[in-house]
Amino acid sequence: MLIGEIYSTIIYCFATFGLFSNFFLIWLILRYTMKEMQVYSKILLQTCFVDIVGICMFVVSQPAYLSDNGVGTMWSYGPIHFLPNPWQFILVSINNFMMRVTSMNVSTLFIYRYFTVVRKVDLKFKHQLLLIFGLIIPIFILFIFSYVSNGPTPENEYLTNLELARKLELDNYTIEHYVVGLRARTNDLSIFTSNYASALTIINYIIIIFCGISIQIHVYRYCKGVEMTKLRNMNKQMSIVLGAQVNNCGKGVHLFII
């Protein structure tokens, strides 16, 4: 299974980097956080913990996406492929949910900085938690739609396409005894779920770009002296967070087989 081994190796490399970056940032926050940055540091800590959970879920899933005669299908190279359905599908759905949450967490950091730096709003940690909760709601709705529309059934949970099995380098025993983790049905709900997921991704990037540009313009025009030093310290922590999010690129480097 050369394809699976190479794919798993790439995932482990990204996961190792992501875990190291997150634990390193946690250590920096706990050791060097200044009093005036405690709220921001709490936000970074919850971001790190969520990202660590997301990385672990992706490692145990290791999804490979493929098209089985036009039906979207997911095969797991990770340990969860030993599980029957619905347990495997539940873990796959949780993995997809955590990927969305980790990306959303980055946008909440930008929103927090936008309101505190540009709008001069005194945000508390409870306000950030409310913001996170508000952004999780549409992701949770996506989770429900995906669970309903993409769950394998006893009739289609086994991979019967021998050509795809050959591309995945699966032997006959694996095909006969293990099931796929996801089957996207070709109905209106599945199409709506796909479009809804794409819309959430676009909105997330729009938030990051808008807040990032607004912060840069404000800092360039108005921030001097001590305020600039504080922003630089926040930027250092933000840089490590964004560096840790490179593992999300690793989680985005899914194996696609057509």
Automatic annotation (TrEMBL):
Keyword Membrane: yes
Residue ranges the record marks as coiled coil: none
Keywords: Membrane, Transmembrane, Transmembrane helix
Segments passing through the bilayer: 6-30, 42-66, 86-115, 127-148, 202-223
Pfam family membership, one: 7TM_GPCR_Srd
PANTHER family in alphabetical order: 7-TRANSMEMBRANE DOMAIN RECEPTOR C.ELEGANS, SEVEN TM RECEPTOR
Name of the protein: Uncharacterized protein
